[in-house]
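Batch job 17 of 40 flagged for manual review because the log was empty.
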Amino acid sequence: MRKEITVAAQLRTSRGKNEARRLRAHGLTPAVLYGAGREAVAIAAEPSALLRILHSSTGHNTIFDVAIDGGETTPAMIVDWQLDPITDRLLHVDLKRIDMSKRLRVSVPVQTQGEAKGVKQQGGLLEIVTREIEIECLPDEIPEHFTVDVTELMIGQALRAGEVPLSGSMKLLSSPDSVIAHVVALRREAAAAVEAAVPEAAATEPEVIKKGKKEEEAGVAEEKGKKK
């Protein structure tokens, strides 16, 4: 999804670990801009602007403008980034130029709405199996997320990727059979059903043993009769 956001950047004259440390010390994040059939360039940008994009509702699917001081201004997306595991400081970013006339492959979050009947009426549990699907579409048509209604799901039923409503130029790339959400019986209920079946099985077992014992006693009596 394209947003009216412009991230200012500057060209980097050199690369390497020392240069990256120097940039971070001056409050900048090293980055690389590539794609759209043009040469990759090393740049530096303000980390706060990039973090705001990553933490926005559209996240890394956000298309924004990168304006290089003394150079090009182009639509781009964040395709990869590295965070400090302790401070969460943005250490490096890979940016990809976007041709707004060409289709893209993107992963889009899937959100559920409604209370499943299998939960409300049958006491089941709604499990979310897949939280995003992969689609292909034009850049301007990338959705913020998909919303699917799970109200009609009963125990044993599932909602699959092929049922997610698509529009415009969108094409599903994930397997249509991928389960988004399903309703399952609670484990304690399943265990209770097993426990309920055990006494019944135990009650029929002595009957079989008793019957076999009678037949055995009858056979012994018959043998004694023959001997006499």
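Reviewer: the log was empty due to a logging misconfiguration, but the result itself is present. The helical segments are 17-25, 47-54, 117-120, 187-227. Unflagging and moving on to job 18.
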